[in-house]
């Protein structure tokens, strides 16, 4: 479809709330975890599709800081699935030149998981075909708070002064430091909310919501989102006339 044409504006960074796994399973009379498992297949397909389309950054919300509120069995199964997926996929991701990053409060996970994350990040750190960021135990408010704490500490230690705190400094202390802001946000599953995802980073992101449940999302649906994105006029506060003259 059209987004492969270089003339058409294409996002450099896509951020996704992968929602609807549970409902996908329920519709089929399956346990919720079956939906999460099928969701992993969609992740694999999306990583490839984004690579094929020359998108440089893909950020996926896999487990939110609020998802601990789910029944214990679902939380345990979800974390097991995340860990086994990471273990099974890392080699192939590396071979394909994917740079893997994990964002979120990983301190909540045990030492085995933390080591797995560290090794996976190290292994792929020099890769540059696609940066794949997985948000695990992530919350936008957590991200802002941990940045505020680090900055406050620097001020207390007199390493920086208050006047030096500006947007670019905050960017550097967020867990997404070094990753450009998302151009396109996709949420599957029909809900039209941000659910504590990248709160600071989404300030000027184009939002796209679809009823399609995550396990049913595919390359074709991605192209629909890319087409919608290509039709948006990103004004960043300017008037439409200013932006079209500047094109
Ligand atoms: C998204 O699917 C996956 C996670 C939150 C981990 P859900 O599990 O939220 O699916 P629904 O919203 O119940 O259908
Ligand atoms: C958001 O989905 C989190 C992830 C996809 C990991 P939820 O399904 O948890 O969001 P809410 O609770 O419906 O807002
Ligand atoms: Mg949900």
Walkthrough of the structure:
Helices cover 44% and strands 15% of the residues. With 247 residues, the protein is α/β, with parallel strands linked by helices. α2 (32-52) packs parallel to α3 and α3 (72-95) packs parallel to α4. The chain starts with 12 loop residues before the first strand and ends with a helix. Bound molecules: 3-methylbut-3-enyl trihydrogen diphosphate (IPE) (2 copies) and magnesium ion. One 3-methylbut-3-enyl trihydrogen diphosphate binds at residues 18-23, 63, 67, 78, 189.
Taken together, the total number of domains comes to: 1
Oligomer: single chain
Terminal residue distance: 23 Å
Given as residue ranges, the uncertain stretches (5+ residues, pLDDT < 50) are none
Number of helices: 8
Quick one: biggest sheet?
6 strands, parallel
- Shape by Cα distribution: globular
Question: What is the count of β-strands?
Answer: 6
The CATH architecture comes to 3-Layer(aba) Sandwich
Radius of gyration over C-alpha positions, nearest whole angstrom: 19 Å
Average pLDDT over all residues: 96
